[in-house]
Design a protein that fits this description.
Layout lengths: L8 E8 L16 H4 L3 H16 L5 H8 L10 E5 L6 H9 L9 E3 L2 E7 L2
Antiparallel strand pairs: 1-2, 1-4, 3-4
Length: 121
């Protein structure tokens, strides 16, 4: 398989929004009350602990995404589908392309919030 920059990747993610996020509302917090009172540090701490539980096999990535992700992709287990370069925020894109299929990223910080990304294809 070639690795030209036109190749698409597929990824799922878990997004935790915080008071610095661009949009302070989500499907589970429509009025943004929780998001607006969550510091970035608290969001990162929460996500790190979730990541540890997923990596250790204690929790399933898709289940955690479905229950806790602040992205509407939660209902698909965090699946964002396929995307190419230039379609996602730069830090998200770079982190996804750097992963091997099946790998889970460290914390990725974007204007949307903090994420962990699992590359699925």
């Amino acid at each position: 398989m070639s690795t030209s920059s036109s190749d698409k990747v597929r990824a799922s993610h878990i997004l935790i929004k915080h008071q610095g996020s661009r949009r302070k509302a989500s499907w589970k917090d429509p009025e943004g009350r929780i998001i607006s009172s969550t510091t970035k540090e608290a969001a990162i701490t929460h996500l790190k602990s979730l990541r540890n539980d997923v990596v250790s096999g204690k929790l399933n990535f898709e289940d955690v995404a479905a229950e806790l992700s602040d992205c509407s992709s939660a209902k698909r287990g965090g699946d964002l589908g396929s995307f190419g370069r230039g379609q996602m925020q730069k830090p998200f894109e770079e982190a996804t392309y750097a992963l091997k299929v099946g790998e889970i990223s460290d914390i990725v910080d974007t204007d949307s919030g903090v994420h962990i990304i699992k590359r699925t294809a």
